[in-house]
């Protein structure tokens, strides 16, 4: 994790409580990663060739906005609850952070131009709803069940490495409950950016 993240105690992602140093640490790491990605891919694409990317991001200016932090805020709620109950050590929670950054369209455009290998031909933004209302599911709560399975596939290994395998099932049992509660109250969605890049 980049320097500065250690200040992000009890939050596992960017939040309104995150310091400027934490915000900058996340953004600087994204700049490095995305620029390296573009540079590496540019070696595999001929001049005039096209590359399509879809990246989870945000529409708003603030990198800690609800549209990009909610999924992790709900998980943080569970982890903090389990810490207060003694299932998780507080010092371990304070070192756990989701290594992801949700860029805005302007940030992506700026970084593509700065790296210099590609021209941004198009960028389109669309939503992917959390609530996939599958019919005839064997589960009483199919939408939150499938969503939580998806998130578990992303973060389970990181959670095991930090907190141990013995608490994983309990984390996701509780996580499904808070996700389900959130889905009942409001419509949740991921923001996606679809980029069409042309190699110079």
TrEMBL record:
Question: Which InterPro entries does the annotation name?
Answer: MeTrfase_7 (IPR005299), MeTrfase_capping (IPR042086), SAM-dependent_MTases_sf (IPR029063)
Q: Molecular function (GO) terms listed? A: metal ion binding; methyltransferase activity
Keywords (alphabetical) are: Magnesium, Metal-binding, Methyltransferase, Transferase
GO BP term, pick one: methylation
UniProt keyword Ion transport present: no
| UniProt-listed Gene3D superfamilies | Methyltransferase, alpha-helical capping domain
Q: Which residues form a coiled coil?
A: none
> What SUPFAM superfamilies does the database record attribute to this sequence?
S-adenosyl-L-methionine-dependent methyltransferases
Q: Report the protein name in the record.
A: SAM dependent carboxyl methyltransferase
Question: Organism classification, top ranks?
Answer: Eukaryota, Viridiplantae, Streptophyta, Embryophyta, Tracheophyta
